[in-house]
Amino acid sequence: MVPTVHPSSSSCLTSEADEKYANGLFEGLKVYRTQVGRITLFRPEQNALRMQMGADRLCMTPPSVDQFVEAVKQTVIANKKWVPSPGKGTLYIRPLLIGSGAVLGIASAPEYMFVVSSGLNLKVDHTYRRAHTGGTGGVKSCTNYSPVVKSLREAKSAGFSDVLFLDAATGRNIEEVSTCNIFVVKENILSTPPISGTILPGITRKSISELAPDIGYQVQERDVSVDELLEAEEVFCTGTAVVVRAVESVTFYETKIKYITGENAFSTKLHVMLTNIQMGVVEDTKGWMVEVNDTIEIDTFLN
């Protein structure tokens, strides 16, 4: 696979396997401009590894980690003028892996196209389920998002920000919000549902789990019941788009629980810690940031 950079077009050729049977994966990551003018990416190799995991599940051929990171860098260089000034926002990058070979019916496409383009109030959904054991809930597949639209639309029409889904097996444990992971805080223990095939292994989730112990919090990846959620002191969500965002309230049937938010919230501390690393305000002792070298030639790629 040899990646190439082209101007975006209004259409692209895809196979029926992609168009009708959702033979596709996507990722999402942000591009930062630091205080000293450097352009950086946050842990892009983790996005590459997650795409490879998803591709294996969907019988697709993924780019290597080096190809993925290099393609993202090339896209950033080609669009560097759109990276905002420090503190003014970020550029969002959307890598895609889709079937592009000629094939009809349900089957693996013979060819794949890898493309890179540039306080919550939750309702616990006790009717619909986002993912099931043995399915694709644990990979960033295109198939995972359209099924939540109906539930999300109903929640937003009722005044909620988003939907928190429960596990399909018991209906008693929380799993994740429609597009982000969730954490529950009580005392100095940070709990989040385990990665067991039905929850997306979020890169921000992973990063927060590694940062929290640095400031004295214990992280537990385990089943978290609705009862524990309702008894928590604080709840927050993580994801590339939301970064770390506090949950103001959760409604389960007729019960509405409010949580700690604002400057004293643990989620606020974590948000500052993470974004300071991402924006180059503090030293990146974790080795997470990858600098985009503006001297790279656009037509130079890894084999």
From TrEMBL:
It catalyses: L-isoleucine + 2-oxoglutarate = (S)-3-methyl-2-oxopentanoate + L-glutamate; L-leucine + 2-oxoglutarate = 4-methyl-2-oxopentanoate + L-glutamate; L-valine + 2-oxoglutarate = 3-methyl-2-oxobutanoate + L-glutamate. CDD domains: BCAT_beta_family (cd01557). Its EC number is 2.6.1.42. Belongs to the class-IV pyridoxal-phosphate-dependent aminotransferase family. PROSITE patterns: AA_TRANSFER_CLASS_4 (PS00770). Pfam families: Aminotran_4 (PF01063). This is Branched-chain-amino-acid aminotransferase. Keywords: Amino-acid biosynthesis, Aminotransferase, Branched-chain amino acid biosynthesis, Pyridoxal phosphate, Transferase. Its cofactor is pyridoxal 5'-phosphate. It comes from the Eukaryota. It is an enzyme of class 2 (transferase). PANTHER family: AMINO ACID AMINOTRANSFERASE, BRANCHED-CHAIN-AMINO-ACID AMINOTRANSFERASE. The keyword rRNA-binding does not apply. InterPro entries: Aminotrans_IV, Aminotrans_IV_CS, Aminotransferase-like, B_amino_transII, BCAT-like_C, BCAT-like_N, BCAT_family. Gene3D superfamilies: 3.30.470.10, D-amino Acid Aminotransferase, subunit A, domain 2 (3.20.10.10). The keyword Amino-acid biosynthesis applies.
